[in-house]
Amino acid sequence: MTRDPEPLLALLGRLQGLWNAQGAPVAHYALPGLTEGRLDEVARTSGFQLAGELREWWAWHNGVAEAPGVPLSTLTAGPGAWELLSLDGALADRTTWMQTMARTGLPWDPTWLPLVAGPQNSRILARTAEGDGYHVPMGFMMLPYEGELGATVAGSLAEVVALWVLALEERYYWYDSTLGGWESRWADVPLELKMRWVI
After folding, report:
1. Is the separation of the CB atoms in 184 and 64 below 8 Å?
2. Helix or strand or coil: residue 175?
3. Distance in angstroms (rounded) separating the CA atoms of residues 19 and 27
4. 55 pLDDT exceeds 60?
5. The whole model's pTM is what?
6. Which residue from 8, 43, 33, 14 is spatially nearest to 154, judged by alpha carbons?
7. Which end of the chain is more exposed for a tag (fewer CB within 10 A), N or C?
């Protein structure tokens, strides 16, 4: 899998710009990112050495604020209906999945860290034991799922965000302020993009 040559921070800026331009509520309710000091503290207490991409991700936004009266479906990233998890939320979600998998006998690698949560118990997760110290391969899981749990679907977080940006720029997904929700042209999404499991 190829990594997008554009830096993650630039891609996150483009994603934010698309949210803003389309009037997506997530642009308003996404929480400020964490400071370097807080990232260091969480890494120290959790035992996770957060690679560069993960630090940039949670320094950008640390999840989404609660918004009473605002449909949860409008507070997602758009493509794939992914909910942005805070870093504390991601660590708690990891603990929940480890306990769930221990009861069911399904495999769960303790070095996996969920980044976003989607429909049908789906997650895009960071495979934190892999990568080059900056880029982190991204895995996918969904239950029930017949494939490999946590299978790598992107070589980096930048690659995932690049696909979201592509989906919004090509208007495979867009926020419709009149209808008050995300809309899609799923039938028009190329099969190779559908099979990436991230949009």
Report:
1. no
2. strand
3. 6
4. yes
5. 0.94
6. 8
7. N
Distance, in Å, from the CA atom of 28 to the CA atom of 5, rounded to the nearest integer, reads 28
Domain spans, the chain? 8-194
Q: Please compute the mean of the pLDDT values over residues 189-199 and round it to a whole number.
A: 91
Mind giving me the DSSP string for 91-160?
A: HHHHHHHHHHHHHHT----TTEEEEEEETTTEEEEEETTSSSSS---EEEE-SS-SS-TTEEEESSHHHH
For residue 49, name the pLDDT band (cuts at 50, 70, 90).
Answer: confident
Which token pair is 124?
A: 């895009």
Tell me: cis bond preceding 144? Omega within 30 of 0 counts.
yes
pLDDT reported for residue 5 = 53
**75, two tokens:** 């507070």
Q: Are 74 and 48 in contact (CB under 8 A)?
A: no
Q: Is residue 103 pLDDT above 80, yes or no? A: yes
